[in-house]
Every structure is written in C-alpha cells, then in structure tokens.
Amino acid sequence: xxxxxxxxxxxxxxxxxxxxxxxxxxxxxxxxxxxxxxxxxxxxxxxxxxxxxxxxxxxxxxxxxxxxxxxxxxxxxxxxxxxxxxxxxxxxxxxxxxxxxxxxxxxxxxxxxxxxxxxxxxxxxxxxxxxxxxxxxxxxxxxxxxxxxxxxxxxxxxxxxxxxxxxxxxxxxxxxxxxxxxxxxxxxxxxxxxxxxxxxxxxxxxxxxxxxxxxxxxxxxxxxxxxxxxxxxxxxxxxxxxxxxxxxxxxxxxxxxxxxxxxxxxxxxx
Length: 270
Known about the structure:
Order of helices and strands: EHEEHEEEHHHEEEEEEEEEEE
Distance between the termini: 31 Å
Structural class: alpha+beta
Strand content: 35-45%
Helix content: 10-25%
Number of helices: 5
Strand order of the largest sheet: 3-2-4-1-14-11-15
Shape: globular
Low-confidence stretches: none
CATH class: Alpha Beta
Mean pLDDT: 86
Largest sheet: 7 strands, antiparallel
C-alpha cells in the first residue's frame, strides 16, 4: 500500500527533513518503489514533480531535499502499484483546476469497482491514468463543483460537509486514506491501512502538531521550525510516523482540517 505525507504551515516552511525520511520508504527502508510525487503551493500556483521510479534512488528527489523549497502546504506520495501500470500518469499527487484554484489529492488503499460504484461515467472530471485514486479525485471534484461554481472560495463548512460524505462513500469500497487541498485548507481523512503485522486496520494516518514562538527554533528528528518575526505553527500528516516524536493516530473515519498550520475543529455530521 502507498504512503502519504502532507504539511500545513502558518508561514512558508521547508519539509526537507520529513521529505528525506519519507523518501527512504520509497525503495530503501520500504517497498514503495513504483513512483513518487510532490506538490506544493506557491502564491496561488501549484508546483508538481513526479516520477515512476523509486524515490529513495531518485536524483530529482535528492535535489528537492538538498535545495529545499518553502511553502505553506505540500503533499507527497510514494507508490506501491495496485491498480494501473507503473507510469508517470499514475503517480500522485493528482491535480486539477476548479473554480480558479488548484486542487491536489493523494490517496492510498484499494477501492474496488470505484468507477461503477461512484457512477464515474457521469463525472464532470475524467481520469488520465487508470488508478482508483485518480478516479476518486475526479468523483470528489465533481461533487465539489457546485459549491465552487460561484466566485471566491466557498465556506469551509460547505466543503467539509461534501468531503465527509464522500469519505463515507469511499469507506464502503475499501481502505480510503486521503489528503486533499484546495489551496485554502488541507483535509485529511484517516481510515485504515496494512499495518506491520500484515493486517488491515486503523490508524490509516498519523498527525503531528508543532508550535514555535517568535524568534525561537524547534528542532526534532524529522522536523525543523524557525520562527523569524512571527510565531510559527505546523501540522504534519503521514501514513506512519516519520520521527520518534509524539505523533497522534487519527481515529478510523475521522476527517480533520488544517489551515495555516492549525487544526480547525471539524463539524460533525449527523
């Protein structure tokens, strides 16, 4: 099963240490060697790098780690192929434009017969590759299209309601962990995944929150924060903890929202 990683920060921050550990799982300390990708937001635009090769042995990935970029939101994925051939088009993150904003998604799991279950023949967005993850992204954007049709960013509550309901649909099809961003907020859905004992169970995602006061420096294995001029807040999400720090497992079926490096209290659906 693939692995996911994402960051939300109050002020632009680097992810070099976390990305370095994460990339090792792609063909060195882990078997996720069928591709990798990184997407990060930059002043309303979205950068994307991906390859159908093992991240741990990729010169491009090492260049990104060495020449660290800064951003408020980033998503990264290392692939263990289950659906779709090993090719760039099947590597994640997947990105699309909707409502004048870039949207990005990464997913791991195995969603059985998703095309028929979610009636993708009626979707407004269409897949370029053959993965269940991209099919899920197209289905999600089709559901979000109505609220994004008006000018400006839709209210968070409207977006969250759609995403929570969509996550519940996916859970009926199989393991459905995903991280999705519309540039304004980062949404994390933790379900279940293959654990080290070989069983499929929760947690599907873990989270780590860090705060650094103005002028201070926080440094831990896997995360470094320097607050220059302002307080800094960071939230990390990952399939497995990327450091020996106190990561918190997400509850099965939980959807969390992060904005500017802080968790936003989610609305609970009836």
